Amino acid sequence: AQSVTQLDSQVPVFEEAPVELRCNYSSSVSVYLFWYVQYPNQGLQLLLKYLSGSTLVKGINGFEAEFNKSQTSFHLRKPSVHISDTAEYFCAVSERGSTLGRLYFGRGTQLTVWP
Amino acid sequence: NAGVMQNPRHLVRRRGQEARLRCSPMKGHSHVYWYRQLPEEGLKFMVYLQKENIIDESGMPKERFSAEFPKEGPSILRIQQVVRGDSAAYFCASSPKGQYEQYFGPGTRLTVT
Fold this sequence. Notes:
- The structure holds two protein chains of two kinds.
- By secondary structure, chain A is mainly beta.
- Chain A has strands at residues 3-5, 10-14, 19-21, 24-26, 31-38, 44-50, 56-58, 64-68, 73-78, 87-95, 104-105, 109-114.
- The radius of gyration of chain A is 14 Å and the shape is globular.
- Chain B has strands spanning 5-7, 10-13, 19-24, 31-37, 43-50, 53-56, 65-68, 75-79, 88-95, 103-104, 108-112.
- Chain B is globular.
- Chain B has no helices and eleven strands.
- Helix content of chain B is 0%, strand content 50%.
- Chain B is mainly beta.
- Chain B starts with a strand and ends with a strand.
- In chain B, the strands form two sheets. In chain B, strands 2, 4, 5, 6, 9, 10 and 11 form a seven-stranded mixed β-sheet that branches. A four-stranded antiparallel β-sheet of chain B has the order 1-3-8-7, with no helix packed on it.
- Chain A binds chain B through residues 4, 6, 32, 34, 36, 41-46, 49, 51, 90, 92, 94, 99-108, and chain B through 4, 6, 31, 33, 35, 40-45, 48, 55-56, 59, 91, 93, 95, 100-107, 109.
């Protein structure tokens, strides 16, 4: 089974500052990687995904993430955050080649952007 | 194209009652997944279904929980004789055949009193 670790449970930042949300996974097999965002009392929205190809992937709302196979990491970044980015962010992993397709989630990182 | 639909959005049940949660996948999606989110935790996989088949139920509690995805109609997650520990947000996700992206519904928040 996969294990996904989001190293920071809470990340407070000021508006227009850069932010990085960290995600590491444990895997001996190839994986697909995802970041989802959850606003209060809502479902999860896909921010970005890594399936193959370039290790730097760009998503919606100005977010990007870099896949680092040697460090088994997939950190999420944004160069300048807005108040509206305040939300819970989840990293998720799926095993490449598996017919089951289940996602393994981290515990989430609450990003709070202050004015 | 409507997204994944779940109903009800909020459900209150007393201990011992039954809870039925419904999920209609996105149009054209034949795979449905159910996840549970407990307070302060990430989402935990429960079950993966295709039409009329349970593919993987390894995350489902052995007792009181069941799921189905009939040929016609929504997928149903059923919890019998609910207990306080069942209080959580239950999310449904769907994906088209052959793809790994999952699209999530708004969730059903179950409160057991």
